[in-house]
Amino acid sequence: MTFLSQPRELWCSLRTTNAIERSFREIRRRTKPMSCFNNKASCSRIIYSVVSYLNTKWRNEPVPGLTQ
Question: What distances in angstroms separate CA 42 from CA 26, 34, 37, one per listed residue?
Fold first, then answer.
């Protein structure tokens, strides 16, 4: 809700600390330059590889605040 209390002009430049939102942003960043996919499987492979990379990264370097 703090995000919404900021001026609308700043919304595009504000960043979140939510790990799920960051992972979706990373998936969008990787898939956006690829204007089209040959089929659903090719898109699924890209998404899987990004999520797999993030899982490996978080396993080795836990995100503070999300682990006990």
Answer: 17, 11, 6
Q: At what angle do helices 40-60 and 19-31 cross, to 10 degrees?
A: 140
In contact, 47 and 24? CB cutoff 8 Å: no
The Cα angle at residue 18 between residues 56 and 20, in degrees rounded to 5: 50
User: Tens digit of pLDDT for each residue in 14-67?
Assistant: 666 677 777 888 888 877 777 677 788 888 888 888 889 888 887 777 656 555
**d(C-alpha 36, C-alpha 33), whole Å:** 9
- The span from the CA of 63 to the CA of 37, in Å, is 32
- Residue 58: per-residue pLDDT: 76
Residue with tokens 């090719």: 42
Nearest CA-CA partner of 51 in 31, 32, 29, 24: 24
